[in-house]
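Batch manifest, entry 17 of 40.
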Amino acid sequence: MTIAAGIDVGTAVIKAAIFSVEDGKETWLSRSIMRIRQRDPIELARVAFDQALEDAKLTANQVDYVATTGEGESVPFHTGHFYSMTTHARGAIYLDPESRAALDV
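Output type: structure tokens
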């Protein structure tokens, strides 16, 4: 089983999600959403991640991969970062596996 987390650092909201993958089956374990409201988004990314970990009853050491999107490239504990064009295309394929192109407008 692989446990992964995703953190999106947006312009107004930080979103964190934790899920597990086993034998190709994804199971959502927890999520956290925090509004930035004149606070440091990178610090809030840690708070949102910690909150999602607590909800899932996990520790950071149990998470195999932490992916970020948006401005999350600056999150110091991320494992990988995905740019918006990549995430939009992957989302399109996830929602419609037969699609062969995605238009990012």
